[in-house]
Specification:
binds histidyl-adenosine monophosphate
């Protein structure tokens, strides 16, 4: 250990990629969390939680290379166990569901707002600690109805924040469909299929030339586009592709019937996580300033089965999404959808002199106001009226009561709105 130099002051900066939350920041966080909570509870989702520490092995099975090897905060504890600060909630949820499989009732609707950690380069929309709304529906009988319900929850959340349909798009695809294309049309082996999936995942972050240069290394087949009618007809005529293609087309049609107008079938949506098996989707902000996905999710049929005792008589399939607070806040800020800060403290009681009687009466006034349910702070130190006004403004307190000699003699006080 190096000697501490007492003359050297410590930096006030927080650790890279994490945030401090002052009351004004926490106000915004509470606004988002409360809105999320209310919207998902209206569909019957119940809240759960877990520790931020997880056994590393639960991510190794199915979260994918990037999260496990490049982005995780992993360490060995004093008992030689490999521990990870959760980078996402889905494996924890799958573990919890597998552990109580017999007691839990299905379809099971669950949500949580955990903080997650990923060692990423901090940038717009991405930090190293973020909070993530997780909404998941687990069932022994997967159905397109449930996939569509998850998309309805997405729409309901966006509406709850006063977002318009034109502010965002829900871009959907199907892993089952693209996997069928990879084998039956592109004729890729496992390694090539994974390379193609990764390349597609970063398609909108690289130039068309870079994409083309990478693509020719994987396949020489013409790229197919579902939004081109002749390509679509061609795909419908491929026996192995037809079934998963029809399934995702039916899901899109059902979602539209349920009033989700801004849904788009997009074969470029593949998602980075390995556990998705069916529907995959990303919600995109239509404001080009926020060009990353706002959030995303999909169906995972086999994740619960990786845990002991889970895959006996019937396996459990899940569908859901994760919505990060950083992206959400960017979206709301760019559209002025965050309400102005309001302090929880409603009244500032100001003590105008040092006399014991004044202080005692100010305390009585504060106690009386608290009895009526108000949140009250007392300022014992600023003597001048203008200083008290300035302080109330800085703290965001909307009302003040001044206690001086007159108030003490008359035993009367007045609450003034600023
Ligand atoms: P994901 O795509 O890895 O999926 O993350 C989902 C969302 O979490 C992102 O779209 C973004 O809003 C937020 N997010 C991810 N990483 C960061 C970061 N470094 N900083 C800020 N926000 C971030 C999952 O995590 C899946 N487990 C979601 C899911 C739930 N699928 C089914 N159920």
């Amino acid at each position: 250990m190096t000697e501490k130099d007492p003359s050297k002051k410590l930096s006030t900066e927080s650790y890279k990629g994490v945030r401090d939350f002052y009351p004004t920041d926490l106000f915004v966080q509470h606004f988002m969390f409360d809105t999320w909570r209310k919207a998902v509870q209206s569909f019957g989702y119940e809240e759960y939680d877990a520790s931020v520490l997880e056994n590393t092995e639960i991510y190794k099975a199915k979260s994918g290379d990037e999260i496990v090897n490049a982005q995780s905060y992993t360490f060995t504890d004093r008992g030689d166990r490999e521990v990870t600060l959760r980078p996402e909630m889905t494996p924890t949820l799958a573990r919890m569901v597998a552990a109580r499989k017999r007691e839990l009732g299905f379809p099971l609707r669950l949500f949580s707002i955990p903080n997650c950690f990923r060692y990423e380069r901090p940038q717009r929309g991405r930090l190293r600690e973020f909070w993530q709304l997780n909404v998941d529906l687990l069932t022994k009988k997967p159905s397109p109805r449930y996939d569509v319900e998850i998309l309805q929850v997405v729409s309901t959340i966006m509406k709850a924040f006063q977002a318009k349909d034109s502010d965002y798009e829900i871009r959907v695809n199907s892993r089952a469909f693209i996997n069928a294309l990879y084998t039956d049309y592109y004729e890729l082996n496992t390694e090539q299929a994974l390379a193609f999936q990764k390349l597609t995942d970063k398609k909108n972050k690289i130039s068309a030339e870079e994409f083309a240069a990478e693509y020719v290394k994987i396949s020489d087949k013409k790229l197919l586009d579902v939004n081109d009618s002749s390509d679509l007809t061609f795909m419908k005529n491929m026996p192995g592709v037809k079934e998963p293609l029809d399934a995702i087309l039916d899901t899109v049609a059902l979602a539209k019937k349920e009033g989700i107008a801004n849904i788009i079938f997009d074969t470029d949506i593949v998602r980075g996580l390995d556990y998705y098996t069916g529907l995959v989707f990303e919600v995109k902000d239509t404001d080009p300033q926020n060009n990353r996905a706002l959030f995303g999710g999909g169906r995972y049929d086999n994740l619960v089965d990786i845990f002991e005792g889970a895959a006996d008589e019937s396996s459990i399939s899940g569908v859901g999404f994760g919505y990060g607070d950083v992206a959400m806040q960017n979206f709301l800020e760019s559209r002025n959808l965050i309400p102005p800060y309001q302090a929880a403290t409603e009244i500032l009681v100001c003590v105008l002199d040092d006399n014991e009687a004044t202080v005692v009466y100010a305390d009585e006034v504060a106690a009386e106001l608290r009895q009526t349910g108000k949140n009250v702070a007392v300022n014992y130190t600023s003597r001048k009226y203008p200083d008290n006004i300035k302080l109330a403004e800085k703290l965001g307190i909307k009302n003040i009561t001044v206690i001086g000699e007159n108030e003490v003699t008359e035993k009367k006080f007045e609450v003034k709105q600023l």
